[in-house]
Design a protein that fits this description.
Elements (H helix, E strand, L loop, with lengths): L30 E2 L9 E6 L5 H19 L2 E4 L5 H10 L4 E4 L1 H10 L4 E6 L7 E6 L21 E3 L5 H13 L12 E2 L3 H10 L4 E5 H10 L7 E6 L7 E4 L3 H5 L3 H10 L6 H10 L4 E3 L6 H9 L5
Parallel strand pairs: 2-3, 2-4, 7-8, 7-9
Antiparallel strand pairs: 1-3, 4-11, 5-11, 5-12, 6-9, 6-10
Helix pairs in contact: 1-8, 1-9, 2-3
Amino acid sequence: MTTIPRRHVLLGSTGVLVLAACGTDDEADTSAGQTSAASGGTLVISAIPDQDPEKLNRLYPALATLLAEATGLKVTYQPVTDYPAVVRAFEIGDIGLSWMGGLTGVQARSRVPKAQATAQRDIDADFHSLFIANTSAGLEPFTDTAGLSSLAGHSFTFGSETSTSGRLMPQYFMQGAGLETTTLKGEPGFSGSHDATIEAVAWGSFETGAVNEQVWKKTKEAGKVDLSKVVVLFRTPGYADYHWLARPDLDEKLGAGTTDKITAALLALDASKPKDAEVLDLFGAKSFVATENSNYDQIEAVATELGLLT
């Protein structure tokens, strides 16, 4: 199997799950707000590490500040090492609110009964993955899922092993086209993030790959990666994806109405306000909208079918 440069490889689901800087107030550079940090007094938020850590470390502390201002809570951002780590941290209660992909959200809810999907971006109800290829693969764009069969015999990388847009739904569409991973050139790779997938295909480490459409657009806009040798082969049908997931004990720990207050603060983010606009732009969205658990029934069904609901 072709490998991705070491700096782009994150731990997979079989790796050691290590929380980054877990649980002390010494990580004050990512916290905001005035409420006492005594047990139960801090809202700890986290997120799947689906993009460049530098971007995530700008986004979530800024959001923590906005949530603190809106709710009066002390809000701390807790980074994690990989997708399974955020699910585990949510399960054991180290974090109370997390930005999840469709699959990680379903996995977390299977471990934490009554956890609630509360808000998603305006783009998440109809989300898409892209299949991309290095021009050296000699593949041409196609307009139907059946065209995915042309990836047979080519090297291919997913993103994280538990990414909805970088693994779950791409594999679902591949299987629908009769393309099994065993027909690829070697074992499929797992780059760890969407940025890493784009770079791996651009550099020719893999001939083809699947990536989150929103991250692809942001990468093109940023112009930091040479995409002259990358072609978009196919845009998948839409599906529900990212969302905020709240633990069911938030109100018990932080006061009655806390979950509603946090959700209202997310939904109130306004692109006409500079601070809000900065956060929304980093999310690649114009607003957040309300969502609920049932919107991810398709993701749960696909995850079950593919044996990924663990």
